[in-house]
Every structure is written in structure tokens, then in C-alpha cells.
Amino acid sequence: MIDAFGIILAVTMVGTALWVLLRMYRNSRKKKVKVDPHVHRERSVWAWARVVSSTHGNAGLGGMVRVDLELEVHLPGTPFFSAKTTWLVDQEALAFVETGKEISLKVDPLDTNYIYPNGSWARVLE
Questions:
Q1: What is the rounded CA–CA span in Å between residue 36 and residue 67?
Q2: Which of 37, 77, 86, 107 is most enclosed, with most CB atoms within 10 A?
């Protein structure tokens, strides 16, 4: 006599095992490749931004000040977007990053989290 419950249980277990193995196989193929930071800088394009807010820290070694910026970024051919970044800015150049000022910068169009200053007066805090 055939035990229906045993057959249903066996089919369910085999199906579940196949489903888990298939999911594991698919997920193993989708591993992200970490992009070298220099790649972001190389593919960045010119843009401009309006400083929405800037928070200045204390001056550190070399006369650089940590500045947290909230920007309204205008990338050519796209609508503007809001972004946050942190730069090290020369003390003499703090006037460039005051609230309401417009600044020139470079943005990676494929990953807009990478925003670089245009000039030697600042650098990205990485």
C-alpha cells in the first residue's frame, strides 16, 4: 500500500532543496565588484552646486578645516539633486563654501555619491 503522506513529504523536501540550491547559485553570480576610488574620479564630469548648508569644524593640521556640506547639485542634462559630502577646506577658502554660494565641482554620473571639489583649496575626506 502506498503511503501518500510520505510521497508528498519527499516531493516537498526535494522541491525545497532544489529551490534553495537555485537561489544560492543565482546569488553567488551577483557579487558586486568593488570599484577602485580612482575610477570614480576619472569618470566624473563638471557640474555646479548651490551650498544649502555648511557646518565647519575646527582647524586641523595644515590649516585644513573639516566642512560637512549639503548641496543642490546641477549636473548637465539632469534635474538637480540634493547631496551631502564632507571636504577638507583651506581656512582661507572657507568663504567659498558658505551657505548660498555657488561652487564648481565634479560628480561621478554613475554614482552621484562621489562629489569632488574643483580646485586645490579643498579635497574630499575619504
A1: 24
A2: 107
